[in-house]
Recover the amino acids of this structure.
């Protein structure tokens, strides 16, 4: 499910002209911070999706594979809800930074889980 990445990539501050000017390794302003946070989330989500596909390819039983697909879709919704809750009450750049930070951290946790599952199969 790449819905979150597609939605976040389309935000007005993610225009190519802005993204190309940002160096995420240096000190930056609020706009740069949001761009870098968005890009970090996109990278983490892409890695998670690659591992998820690898994991699904290992599962031979169709009903177990479908159960894992259902679980992952529920997990994606859960990630979104938790991130919204964490950012609740913030406004402007801080709302975006908190939301993206949680989306990234939760995705990184799922990456570790999927790495374990891919190795253990």
């Amino acid at each position: 499910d790449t819905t979150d990445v597609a939605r976040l990539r389309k935000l007005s501050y993610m225009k190519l002209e802005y993204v190309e000017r940002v160096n995420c390794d240096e000190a930056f302003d609020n706009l740069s911070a949001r761009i870098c946070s968005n890009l970090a989330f996109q990278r983490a989500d892409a890695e998670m999706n690659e591992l998820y596909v690898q994991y699904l390819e290992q599962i031979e039983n169709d009903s177990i594979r479908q159960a894992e697909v259902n679980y992952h879709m529920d997990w994606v919704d859960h990630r979104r809800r938790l991130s919204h809750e964490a950012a609740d009450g913030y406004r402007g750049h801080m709302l975006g930074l908190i939301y993206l930070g949680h989306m990234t951290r939760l995705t990184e946790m799922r990456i570790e889980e999927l790495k374990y599952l891919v190795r253990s199969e």
Remarks:
- The chain has a mean pLDDT of 93.
- Helices lie at 3-9, 16-19, 30-58, 62-87, 92-120.
- Residues 30-58 form the longest helix (29 residues).
